[in-house]
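FYI - complex with flavin mononucleotide, inputs then prediction.
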Amino acid sequence: VTVRLPRLADYEARAREVMPAALFAELFGTAENSVGISEQNNLAGYRSVKLRPRVLIDVRNRRLGTTVMGRPIGLPVMLAPVGKQRWAHPAGEPATARAAARAGTVMVASTASNASLEDIAAAAGAAWFQLYYLPDRDATLKLVRRAEAAGYCALVVTVDIVAGPVEHRVPDTIVWNAKAVEAPAVHGNFAAGELPSPAKAAWHESGVTWADLEWLRTQTRLPMILKGIQCATDARRCVEIGAAGLMVSNHGGRTVEDAVATVEQLAEVSAEVGGELELYLDGGIRKGVDVLKALALGARAVLIGRPILWGLAAAGEEGVHDLLELLRVEFDTAMAYCGVVDATAVPRDLVKVPADW
Ligand SMILES: Cc1cc2nc3c(=O)[nH]c(=O)nc-3n(C[C@H](O)[C@H](O)[C@H](O)COP(=O)(O)O)c2cc1C
């Protein structure tokens, strides 16, 4: 099935059509425990960054690729760790992994995946593993060892989840495109009883601190990237503990209400530690120009979260692949119109940001 919808927003509309309302609400935070303001701030952040295009530059040969942790990718858009992808489509995470590999980019596989990290790695090209630090160090290390053995290239440690959502409220049966499928077990990475409860996962109360991450870094040769950094002070600490990279992220606005847009915080973080470690950004990336703006402000690459689920819901692997190709075309066009030929050298003065950023 090739869908090829014209914009990412159309994939969201398609997902809304094919998914039951309760499931859509659960996945996209439109239930009554919604934390919608931070998500809106993320989206609005890009509209506040204005482009200053340059002209009369030969832009016929544009290079969209970059390297992430030393590996080349064809497009500076990666796939953020998103759990429970089988809720969007029965094919789930392995389908996303194949779509990412075909598009020449990297998927970050979530600890909270429906498929096991081994099954995702088998379907993927180069992939990264997202780790939730569990209350028990041995259980955490066990996940790290499994990720190493499965061939993951980097460890993304998500540090912004410290309290849980209330309760998952998903029906036992999911009607997907008029076909009923059994709601999949939430956690493909854990055996029954390994987590306290299916609704409230162990990482919601892990009490993890900088000292734990400093220790974790000494336990693995995988480069460690901290996901969920939102200010210059914490970015500095990432450098101090020897992180190879950080992701400016507020979990897509799914945690605390009224957080600053991540693209605004990227500007702050980049001014503090730019050049000292690799910077990544997620939250609200929906268009090619958003990617270009993030690169101008110091990101090496960006990640998309919700759009993965929209693509999956629309058409499984093909939907995710089409959506990545759409972003590639948009990003390529934006580069041309702005006089940019190399995605690794987007000048800071390509953008203007509000005076108080
Ligand atoms: C349904 C859903 C599940 C998510 N699961 C995880 C997860 O398991 N681990 C994680 O680090 N982030 C998770 N995230 C956050 C994403 O990695 C990412 O930070 C966020 O979605 C980016 O914002 P965007 O959705 O606006 O692109 C999840 C986000 C959504 C919407």
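Residues 27, 42, 80-83, 110, 112, 130, 158, 227, 249, 251-252, 254, 282-285, 304-306 surround flavin mononucleotide (CB under 6 Å). Residues 16 and 24 are 7 Å apart (CA to CA).
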